[in-house]
């Protein structure tokens, strides 16, 4: 049976309740990857159950993640443990930099002439937008693919026109609404955290927070600050996320260290990767 706090946690995810596979990705990214990448299936089922995702859905989703090469399973006696594959760990680590890493600074642009459909799909996945025909534009961030014929632009004389182009090409209006909705939905969490939470509730709140923020942040093209509105709602969302994450983490990480397991026993409370996350988030508050 859910406690009142756990029910509230589900409410923070409304009106978009989690799908099993996406929730599992959130759990592994937030809890498991920085602690070695392995979790007991029983703990995974228990965490997902707190968000209304039943055991059958969890097992089906895990099987699909195994078939996609993201997870691999091991048995020890009657217990099953699922580990992130090396490729998945690298992917999760890179994605974590988006959520827990330093804030985006200003940057230049990448202009690409790309004619291959497969390469165009990759560009779009990495936050590029089509300007006209086979010409694509994206922020010059680390890890962005250089496909087709690519040029770097570090200075744009007519900044006003570029702001209009950016807003239209990258759908900034819709993204701004999503960030504003995130702030509206999770702002009240601050009062609940201030009153004090049980360690398990702190972990569930943090998972709800990460799950919602992740869904928006992965769609953010991370444009140069110079073309974003001064009142860009992504700034407030980032600050709220960082503050809540840091405030929830003492209880959440304490619960992890006392209750969640891999093959060697209980997971670590604050490994180096977690400490680095906390340090990076402190600069966003």
TrEMBL record:
It comes from the Bacteria. Residues 172-257 form the Transcriptional repressor PaaX-like C-terminal domain. Residues 20-85 form the Transcriptional repressor PaaX-like N-terminal domain. It holds the Pfam family PaaX. One of its GO terms (biological process) is DNA-templated transcription. PANTHER family: PHENYLACETIC ACID REGULATOR-RELATED TRANSCRIPTIONAL REPRESSOR (PTHR30319), TRANSCRIPTIONAL REPRESSOR PAAX (PTHR30319:SF1). This is Putative regulator of phenylacetic acid degradation, ArsR family protein. It comes from Roseibium aggregatum (strain ATCC 25650 / DSM 13394 / JCM 20685 / NBRC 16684 / NCIMB 2208 / IAM 12614 / B1). The lineage of its organism: Bacteria, Pseudomonadati, Pseudomonadota, Alphaproteobacteria, Hyphomicrobiales.
